[in-house]
């Protein structure tokens, strides 16, 4: 059984093939001009899903890096404040050693007491250090931890300040300076120790002088060690943040390369494909022109 192929059938076939070639040429040109392999989800549904996942991953990494930068700023503010407290304590120790020497007499001890009283105010003021307007040693509270001119009471809380530096990874960035300074009132912490030193400096008795040389000096050294341990914790946290920042940088680079491979078109291969498709389309136009001949009706119009 034979089929008759009419001119209309041939014309429709040629036109359909030309339209398909033109559409393919248009898509390739769009990829070449935009630099994107996927310009719409229908171009590559799987690739689109993969690209969306990679973009979400990159957004999470960027947020984690911002959190790390914020945490590092907090750590720098904390370390600077702790360094200031440490310097104040070293000066206090120098004054205490000098006051324990009987050669200066009570006049030297009273002068030392006046300076140490100022140092206590300095320490409490330093403990009120802030980062981005938030006290760094107040726990989760936004209140000023200490009143330099008032009682030694701690006005913050014991809450933790956390930063997320990865999926399910949280780091506490606030240091417990109140655990070193205390609240006075016989708690045996730093401020209480300094108040005891003041009392012995102003007491004027032989027992007070002996306490300055022995128990007060030993207790102050213990408090200095506690402060050094706290600074070490801050330093360890800073090291952990730096390591996390480096790791996130590597992950970001890898995810960016993967996203580029999924989304972006290779310039060289796209240009070659466009040139090939353009040549094929031009050849199809020439061949189609020979097949689709003008009919009698075309001349009668």
From TrEMBL:
Gene Ontology biological process terms in this record: bacterial-type flagellum-dependent cell motility
UniProt keywords, alphabetically: Bacterial flagellum
Pfam family, one: Flagellin_C
Gene Ontology CC entries for this record: bacterial-type flagellum hook
All residue ranges annotated as the Flagellin N-terminal domain in the record: 6-141
GO molecular function: structural molecule activity
Record InterPro entries: Flagell_FlgL, Flagellin, Flagellin_C, Flagellin_N
Keyword Cell division appears in the UniProt entry: no
Domain (Flagellin C-terminal): residue spans on this chain: 218-300
Protein name per UniProt: Unannotated protein
Organism of provenance: freshwater metagenome
């Amino acid at each position: 059984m034979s089929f008759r192929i009419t001119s209309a059938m041939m014309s429709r076939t040629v036109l359909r093939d030309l339209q398909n070639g033109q559409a393919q040429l248009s898509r390739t040109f769009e990829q070449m001009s935009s630099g994107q392999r996927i310009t719409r989800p229908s171009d590559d549904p799987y690739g689109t899903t993969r690209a969306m996942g990679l973009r979400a991953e990159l957004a999470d990494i960027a947020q984690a890096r911002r959190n790390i930068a914020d945490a590092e700023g907090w750590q720098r503010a904390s370390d600077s404040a702790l360094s200031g407290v440490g310097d104040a304590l070293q000066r206090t120790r120098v004054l205490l050693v000098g006051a324990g020497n009987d050669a200066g007499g009570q006049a030297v001890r009273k002068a030392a007491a006046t300076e140490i009283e100022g140092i206590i105010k300095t320490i409490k003021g330093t403990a009120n250090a802030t980062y981005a307007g938030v006290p760094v040693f107040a726990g989760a509270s936004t209140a000023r931890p200490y009143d330099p001119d008032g009682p030694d009471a701690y006005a913050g809380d014991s809450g933790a300040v956390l930063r997320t530096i990865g999926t399910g990874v949280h780091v506490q960035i606030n240091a417990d300076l109140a655990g070193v300074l205390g609240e006075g009132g016989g708690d045996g912490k730093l401020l209480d120790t300094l108040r005891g030193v003041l009392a012995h400096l102003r007491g004027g008795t032989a027992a007070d002088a002996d306490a300055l040389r022995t128990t007060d000096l030993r207790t102050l050294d213990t408090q200095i060690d506690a402060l050094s341990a706290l600074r070490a914790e801050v330093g360890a946290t800073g090291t952990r943040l730096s390591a996390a920042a480096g790791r996130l940088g590597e992950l970001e680079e890898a995810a960016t390369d993967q996203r580029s491979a999924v989304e972006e078109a290779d310039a060289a291969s796209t240009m070659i494909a466009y040139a090939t498709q353009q040549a094929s389309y031009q050849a199809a136009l020439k061949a189609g022109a020979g097949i689709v001949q003008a009919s009698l009706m075309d001349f009668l119009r």
